[in-house]
Amino acid sequence: MNTADLGLPVAVPSTALFTDQYELTMLQAALRSGTAERRSVFEVFTRRLPEGRRYGVVGGTGRVLDAVENFRFDETILGFLRERGILDEPTLEWLADFRFRGDIWGYPEGEIYFPGSPVMRVEGTFAEAVLLETVILSILNHDSAVAAAASRMAVAAGGRPLMEMGARRTHELAAVAASRAAYVGGFHTTSDLAAGFRYNIPTVGTSAHAFTLLHDTERDAFTAQVDTLGGGTTLLVDTFDVTEAVRTAVEVAGPELGAVRIDSGDLLLIAHRVRQQLDELGATKTRIVVTSDLDEYAIASLAAAPVDAYGVGTQLVTGSGHPTCSMVYKLVARADSEEPGAPLRPVAKKSMGAKTSLGGRKWAARRPDADGVAEAEVIGTGPVPAELADRQLLVPLVSAGKVVAREPLDAARDRHIAARAALPLSATQLSRGEPVLPTEYV
Amino acid sequence: MNTADLGLPVAVPSTALFTDQYELTMLQAALRSGTAERRSVFEVFTRRLPEGRRYGVVGGTGRVLDAVENFRFDETILGFLRERGILDEPTLEWLADFRFRGDIWGYPEGEIYFPGSPVMRVEGTFAEAVLLETVILSILNHDSAVAAAASRMAVAAGGRPLMEMGARRTHELAAVAASRAAYVGGFHTTSDLAAGFRYNIPTVGTSAHAFTLLHDTERDAFTAQVDTLGGGTTLLVDTFDVTEAVRTAVEVAGPELGAVRIDSGDLLLIAHRVRQQLDELGATKTRIVVTSDLDEYAIASLAAAPVDAYGVGTQLVTGSGHPTCSMVYKLVARADSEEPGAPLRPVAKKSMGAKTSLGGRKWAARRPDADGVAEAEVIGTGPVPAELADRQLLVPLVSAGKVVAREPLDAARDRHIAARAALPLSATQLSRGEPVLPTEYV
């Protein structure tokens, strides 16, 4: 098996069908009306953060690059579109040669964002840029939601290790992307072997209640596990009676037992009891891992408990109440003709309601105060003020169709930590509040 | 491209890495302790429905069957597990030959479920059954969450067509599974081309504000669209001024215009105005499609509006507030030895907290009252009472490793409609409430 077989965009022959039908029919109409080649600028942004959240985290940028590179229409795809009568022959012919040759700029992965932040900007002909809407939004909306939840959990954990264990709570391939986004947001390991395989994230595992129940006694189960995995393993101690299980665990593994896992009950209370018991048994270095429906608030509530690591599942992979971001992909400028070099004109929807957008190709910069703490997200369409020139947030990701910003996942993870550390202190309060930086338009 | 290239389980060489690491290390320990071949029964169930929900909908069964069939450990996967030091050689050798040879029973796809319903039962050796935990839960938890949301929306829509348009709001492959689950739950079409390709769901599309903004005038845009897609197309009328756009639309396309789409503002008010305007313009058969952040409540609130179809995105693919189900995979019975024919013994976790389970291999039946309306979900571990014998809910899905229950997606969709229709009337109230049927254990 190679990575293609996991269906992950990097090695999938094509991501072109991760597309809403209207993108292709708009292409067809634009080819016919002589507007398809008008130079166009699309921007990805969100009008608001999830309610109460103080910052957003860009996740998925690296996956977008893979997806754009593999966005091709091969014979099978073209045959499908033809058979279904979705497109006419000239459009199918146009697609047969398609590859994205434009430019993409964006906030690098792990960076913080706020309402209005142009987290990605796609420039090219209308035809080539309109096609990427759905696949880009799918990736950024999903991955950023998980990365944001992970970041809050990492803050709550205060440096204690975080294990991603949510594969069973989300789509099997969304789970792999979620592990990746969680790592960017500050998690340390994953239980998901596909994520370990694909993204080289360190994998971990303990055992399930089923393993204890399979054996005639809890002692038999612990013995079996220690025999094969060694005393450094993590024994699950809440299948029957925790106190008895901890005693048995240390008897079986000795005081060098790696860790015990608690998966139910009042974790604060039980962790204290188990710590005391372990210490009394001489297992002073045996760690305590907790894993029961944790979210950032539950993690924070255990800050004073003798807990050594957290395993988080459901709430992580579902974005802790916000499973998607509300990022949109909007045309903000386009040329008046197909002539090369025709000047760009800002455009924006102007109808009623909250969906109005700001036209024009934007830059963005994070302005620090005198102490170097970020004080505003500044977004503009004109020239960049000199004092913000080296504070700009958008970087080149794709130039003339070529990916120019590949990086190891650790780079995104480190960037996130640095970006978060530059925010005002209130950024990391878990309580509900407004975005920690105002967005200023200049 | 073939279906493998979309990374969907049916044609992926292996789904074996969609697995949490502990399943493999438990296997290794069980092989060592001589318990791996103990006959075991695992059941999938949920302890509760999402808060306020009156019924659950089984989604993803068909995808589980594909995943089980493709759960194989090839050289690449074994190499990864070896290099990472996750497993020892005897376990790797055991896995090299692995294929699931046990039995799977389950609620057929589209069926309704309640707290405690054994929606899937996996029987085999511990070794073969424990490995399937994560991939089965991933699929059922995700797909059932979307199917349940879709079902509520379908009830709210009262027969009006529902279009799935949520690909951009979720992981690109989760989106494909979500389209499928939405179809099972009662949606009619999808905008997601990958879902059309993979599952043959009818695809649809309109156009985006970008298309209007690309052109010099709205009239130019409408003309371009009608020229190539014909007068039966759907024109988006809320980029600038709705009244003017509707007038232009009918001028351009004539009174045979297929539909107009409204994507912002007070949909109830605007739909009435647009209907009146269309009728005055003679476009009495032009349909009105609405698409702005709809959920089941918004859909219901438009019941009296002259709306002809709904397009639903975010709230559908995120389960309308409940993006995952809380299904778990628990060992409920196992043999005392590896001897073939050794009797099964019920087992269950017995620790404190809400996670206690009921041991034993279960049957389930939906008991009707004298009028044929369902009145209870009956679950038992002993003999099935004669009067419930033909009301049983579990059907064979996999027998001795062979899939025996493939069916077209429409069969699941029809089954869901029938199962929902057999529930008490209060099942389809959108208001929060208790599960519409009590679960009785006998």
Automatic annotation (TrEMBL), chains A, B:
<dbReference type="Pfam" id="PF17767">
    <property type="entry name" value="NAPRTase_N"/>
</dbReference>
<keyword id="KW-0328">Glycosyltransferase</keyword>
<dbReference type="GO" id="GO:0034355">
    <property type="term" value="P:NAD+ biosynthetic process via the salvage pathway"/>
</dbReference>
<keyword id="KW-0662">Pyridine nucleotide biosynthesis</keyword>
<keyword id="KW-0436">Ligase</keyword>
<comment type="similarity">
    <text>Belongs to the NAPRTase family.</text>
</comment>
<comment type="pathway">
    <text>Cofactor biosynthesis; NAD(+) biosynthesis; nicotinate D-ribonucleotide from nicotinate: step 1/1.</text>
</comment>
<feature type="domain" description="Nicotinate phosphoribosyltransferase N-terminal">
    <location>
        <begin position="17"/>
        <end position="141"/>
    </location>
</feature>
<dbReference type="InterPro" id="IPR006405">
    <property type="entry name" value="Nic_PRibTrfase_pncB"/>
</dbReference>
<keyword id="KW-0597">Phosphoprotein</keyword>
<dbReference type="InterPro" id="IPR013785">
    <property type="entry name" value="Aldolase_TIM"/>
</dbReference>
<dbReference type="GO" id="GO:0004516">
    <property type="term" value="F:nicotinate phosphoribosyltransferase activity"/>
</dbReference>
<dbReference type="InterPro" id="IPR040727">
    <property type="entry name" value="NAPRTase_N"/>
</dbReference>
<dbReference type="GO" id="GO:0047280">
    <property type="term" value="F:nicotinamide phosphoribosyltransferase activity"/>
</dbReference>
<dbReference type="InterPro" id="IPR036068">
    <property type="entry name" value="Nicotinate_pribotase-like_C"/>
</dbReference>
<keyword id="KW-0808">Transferase</keyword>
<protein>
    <recommendedName>
        <fullName>Nicotinate phosphoribosyltransferase</fullName>
        <ecNumber>6.3.4.21</ecNumber>
    </recommendedName>
</protein>
<comment type="function">
    <text>Catalyzes the first step in the biosynthesis of NAD from nicotinic acid, the ATP-dependent synthesis of beta-nicotinate D-ribonucleotide from nicotinate and 5-phospho-D-ribose 1-phosphate.</text>
</comment>
<dbReference type="InterPro" id="IPR007229">
    <property type="entry name" value="Nic_PRibTrfase-Fam"/>
</dbReference>
<dbReference type="GO" id="GO:0005829">
    <property type="term" value="C:cytosol"/>
</dbReference>
